[in-house]
Specification:
Layout (H helix, E strand, L loop, with lengths): L2 E3 L2 H9 L5 E6 L5 H13 L2 E6 L19 H10 L4 E3 L3 H4 L19 H4 L3 H15 L4 E5 L3 H13 L5 E5 L19 H18 L4 H13 L4 E9 L10 E11 L2 E11 L4
Parallel strand pairs: 1-4, 2-3, 2-5, 3-4, 5-6
Antiparallel strand pairs: 7-8, 8-9
Length: 277
């Protein structure tokens, strides 16, 4: 039985009845198989799983898709019931931000100013603000996030560590379609030709990850992206696992963001530079 609650008071009553550790999956709804994998990981860890569904206006820029972001609550509830979720918390804007937009928000710091942060000013400040609020409101002991939003995951881990929030943050590998496309709520905006073009992102990452030399990684991946006219690249970056400068050898991360039509997609992949580990 999955309980749907909309208010802080209802959520507090639900968490007070939790039999033990509380595992939380934070989402903006429009749930897909990637979200369901997060729920499964949470259920494997804890008997009491909360899924939050809230399209957070603070993390959308003025020219971004807040208004058209898909809202599919009934279908989302069915997914949560199927995965054995105990509680779905689906607040409205006034419940999350009583009195209007907060005047005090999180500062994402230097890590929030690169890659996605450079392309979407203020995005990570808004994201961290709502994550901090939701972790507190749900009394989370552990929370699961997908690695597809790798910079988001890194920033949440940093915030929880720096502010000593006492929540364990666990990253879950990206879930993909059989052809390699990373699952995203925004994929539904792609037409057939655009979806085919979008495969260049995962293809570029896979081929780049096969290279040992940092220069070759970027060269190979860039060529694949340039050869697909339907893709407009925002950034392609090779970093260390903490999103710092790429090492000459050792673990690394290759990240890409691009627009396909009017839809902005991101993806990333782990790799190992230099000699095989």
């Amino acid at each position: 039985m999955t309980d749907l609650v909309h208010t802080r008071a209802e959520l507090a009553a639900a968490t007070a009845a939790a039999p033990g550790e509380i595992a939380v999956v934070l989402t903006m709804g429009a749930l897909h198989e990637g979200h369901r994998q997060l729920m499964r990981e949470a259920r494997a860890r804890s008997a009491f799983v909360i899924v939050t569904i809230f399209v957070n206006p603070l993390q959308f820029g003025p020219n971004e898709d807040f208004a058209k972001y898909p809202r599919t609550l009934e279908a989302d509830l069915e997914a949560c019931r199927a995965e054995g979720v105990a509680v779905v918390f689906a607040p409205d804007r006034d419940e999350m931000y009583p009195g209007g937009a907060p005047s005090v928000t999180m500062n994402a710091g230097p890590l929030g100013e690169i890659l996605e942060g450079a392309s979407r000013p203020g995005h990570f400040s808004g994201m961290l603000t709502v994550v901090a609020k939701l972790l507190r409101l749900t009394h989370a002991d552990v929370s699961f996030f997908g690695e597809k939003d790798f910079q988001q995951l890194a920033l949440i881990k940093r915030m929880v560590h720096d502010l000593e929030l006492g929540v364990e943050i666990i990253g879950v590998p990206t879930v993909r379609e059989t052809d390699g496309l990373a699952l995203s709520s925004r994929n539904r905006f792609l037409g057939p030709e655009q979806r085919q073009a979008a495969l260049a992102l995962s293809h570029a990452l896979r081929e780049g990850a096969l290279q040992n030399d940092p220069g070759r990684v970027l060269e190979v991946a860039t060529k694949i992206l340039e050869d697909e006219p339907g893709v407009r690249v925002d950034y392609l970056a090779l970093t260390d696992p903490l999103l710092g400068p790429a090492p000459a050898t050792g673990p690394a991360r290759l990240l890409v963001a691009a627009k396909v039509g009017t839809t902005r997609l991101i993806d990333n992949i782990p790799l190992h530079l230099g000699e095989t580990a």
